[in-house]
Amino acid sequence: MLFGRNVASYKLALAKALLELARDGADLITLEELAGPYSRHLLTHLTQASKQGTSRSSRFLDACKGANTGSVSEDELRSITVALGFGNVIDAFHRLGRQDVEQRFFLDERATAGGIRITVALQELASDSAAADLGAETEARWRLVETAWELGVTSSLIAYNAEDGSFIAADGARRIAVTSARAALNGYQKGRCFYCFTPVTIAARQLTADVDHVFPWALRSLLTGNPNGVWNLVLACRDCNRGAGGKFDCVPALELVSRLHRRNEFLITSHHPLRETLMAQTGSTPALRVAFLQGNYHAAKLARIIEWNAVARDDAAF
To answer: N or C: which end of the chain has fewer CB within 10 A?
Structure first.
């Protein structure tokens, strides 16, 4: 789901299908059973963006488009998905860069049982209270990637719209709403406030996270770079953001600046869809990115000497 160096959106479709099936308590899933939800998510996204990969042609995606127009039946699509749709995605799902992630969410048993076997780790993840947020985050990453492909632009053109809390893409004079900023930022923080680690959610209910500027918007004239940039945005609980004793427009403590740097580096090195945006905003090398944040910290300190730091209200999650 981190997307890595993938050249198609298949991993995102598989992530959504796996969450859906694991919630139903599935164990062994045959390719025929997996084909339904997997292709369904792709069909939905093809109605939003016709480009779901970087290759010039794909017999599988052509079949999905045919299903949307009615020229390919449901049974035909299932057979084509089993034959062509899984290609390398099952082998590559756990791969990030040149290595696999340590956690396995399914075991490949195609050769012995004709499908994949869901692990306990995925079943626990799918039943967790944060599972709905994970589904929304997957959707947000998918929209970021396919928007860049559709417009033929890099994701460095992704910007934050504070009016409605969304990320937008610039296409010439147009500003196109892409996805929720909360959903796109959620993953690294694991459903926790960036500052105090208390649980938050991106759903519209009592503990909904605020999108907060680590370096306050009020100091924008002193900062290098756009304070509305992804580099400066995190999810925070309402107490830390605007409650009594909250951060408001205070200068973040150096500990929080270091935490922000680690977050940005994680998104960059994991090839998150916002990787190019972050590098364009803060620097192409780790040294430049460190200097960028240090410069903004010193500029903010000159304006307001007093720093603000949070009191941890839960175990550190990142």
So the answer is: C
DSSP code per residue over 175-198: EEEEEEHHHHHHHHHTTB-TTT--
C-alpha to C-alpha distances, 71 to 59, 61, 63, 89, nearest whole angstrom: 14, 13, 9, 26
Using an 8 Å Cβ cutoff, are 211 and 235 in contact?
A: yes
As given in the structure block, the two tokens for residue 172 are: 């010439």
DSSP for 13-57 reads HHHHHHHHHHHTT--EEEHHHHHHHHHHHHHHHHTT-S--BSSS-
What tokens appear for 209 in the block? 């996270």
Q: Which of 40, 38, 52, 31 is nearest to 111 (CA)?
A: 31
Angle at 272 between CA 208 and CA 21, to 5 degrees: 65
Q: For position 73, what pLDDT does the model report?
A: 98
CB 142 within 8 A of CB 12: yes
pTM: 0.88
Over range 123-133, report the average pLDDT.
Answer: 86
Confidence of residue 270 (pLDDT cuts 50, 70, 90): confident
